[in-house]
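Batch manifest, entry 17 of 40.
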Amino acid sequence: MAAAFSLREVLAAFQTCVTERREVLLGPYLCGWRGLIRFLHSLGAIFSFVSKDAVAKVQIMESYCRGEQREKYVSLQSMVEYELANGLVDFQKRSGHPDSGCRTVLRLHRALRWLQLFLEGLRTGREDSRTSVICTDSYNASLATYHPWVVRKAATVAFCTLPPRNAFLEIMNVGTPEEAVAMLGEALPYICDVYAITQELFAQHKLLDLP
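Output type: structure tokens
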């Protein structure tokens, strides 16, 4: 995951994530996440509290996708069906199945919401918008709910050191800030779509609060 971040790569992955039947394919989903992790790494250590967990979760899911039951992990829908039918999900507390696919994707799903809100804030913000405010607002509206107070405090302090908006847009590696904004406008609807399908699927099966 040492390669440079490319927004174009993330766009391509999420573009191919959703099938005509509105299923989320795990291969492109994890590919998109690998790109987003490179984005977090490019921002430095202040995002390590998210990126380290995301790396671990992606590796867990990749092991499922390569494992003996890999045909059950082709899509999010097939994974949920398989794990629920076989009692592989811990609903009350983490015990026999501490790293089920459902629990693992749920953690990625929550982090995706924060990145989605943050990137949308960068896209729609003014040139002089403070990225620390955009990032804090996005965090408070998503991931903060699931973090203990000490992590929330450390995160919001760290966000104050973020570079200006245009520096962020240059990290996207697609040209000028204006070109980055345009590509964000192209990429975000696909990310939003994947998020919405996952949210609906997990809500339907009461998977949104797995321990």
